[in-house]
Amino acid sequence: MKLYLDTNIVLGWFKRTMQNLRKEREFKVPAVMEFLSSKEGLDLIVSNLTEAEIIRYLISEWNCDAEFSKDVWKQFVDRFSITYLKPDVDLDELIIACSKIPTRKRTMTNLLHLHIAKKYGLWFLTGEENLSDRYKFYYKKIFTYKELRQRLSPP
Asked: Regarding the domain delimited by 2-152, which CATH topology (the fold level of the hierarchy) does it fall under?
């Protein structure tokens, strides 16, 4: 299964990495990444949009420099053997989606991720509980982390 990861799915790894480096807390891989990396047959995918959000987070929230931020990003992608996309994005479909449902500014980034997943026919994995309900008319292949765990865990 090809899973396009929303930034909120991967953010915990970066937060824990920085806590380990700056606050000398023990590093433990977040449960979501531990679970995803332990399941065979999952192809984990991110895009340059995800990278931009993470670089912004590291620089704005942790006062990292750009070079360090890019190194941490590369470590993450390499550690979990993540496929990296640089999509060519046409936003006309998003205009239609936003005209059908009132959309908060904050939700626009999630819609951009959803649009990328749709363009490539990928499952979109998000931590946003209501994204699937609100935008299923736009794209149906959406899982929350909880739904994916239930689907992939033995009964």
From this structure: Rossmann fold (3.40.50)
